[in-house]
């Protein structure tokens, strides 16, 4: 499968039908945790899915229907963890998997939370970023990037106030986006300014 730029993606043996990403920023202004829920469909029998990200300062601390393997490098600046399914998934079957990512940054990363849509179009994407009430950003933007390493292609300041939420992670205000039918190759997400 290839995106509009001609970039090809290997067959993983499954499609991601929907993603719900909830990202939590701690009172130190650093990413603390992220809960991800994915609905997948196997295109052939599989026993794992791969979770990739752009830092090695992560570990999986909780999971649903999967058991995390060890962290490994996937390429320049990209790392992965294989999430082993509790039971193999036959072709054509669907499964919901969830996992909590905990972060241990030594230095502050960019104030951004984004997701790349690959290796095929995504039917549904929900993304949120939650902040501590005493550490709210000055401005938050919803944006599209020119690839993972590229600059912001289009950004829109969110006019609505951060919405109060009640959760177990200590965050109390969030921004949220709910999208459908996102084309392959898109890099979408939030960025924010503290000062």
Provide tags for this entry.
195 residues, mainly beta, Immunoglobulin-like, 7-stranded mixed sheet, 4-stranded antiparallel sheet, 14 strands, 0% helix, disordered N terminus
Outline:
The N terminus is likely disordered.
Report on this structure:
The chain has 195 residues and is mainly beta. The chain has one domain: Immunoglobulin-like, CATH 2.60.40. It is built from no helices and 14 strands. A hairpin with a 2-residue loop joins β5 and β6. The chain is globular, with a radius of gyration of 17 Å.
Oligomeric assembly: single chain
**Which class do the helix and strand fractions yield?**
mainly beta
CATH topology: Immunoglobulin-like
In total, the number of domains comes to: 1
Strand order of the largest sheet: 4-7-2-1-9-13-12
List the helices and strands and how they pair.
Blueprint: E1 14-25, E2 31-42, E3 46-53, E4 58-64, E5 66-75, E6 78-89, E7 94-103, E8 112-116, E9 122-131, E10 139-145, E11 152-157, E12 163-164, E13 173-182, E14 187-193
Parallel strand pairs: 1-9
Antiparallel strand pairs: 1-2, 2-7, 3-6, 4-7, 5-6, 8-14, 9-13, 10-11, 10-14, 12-13
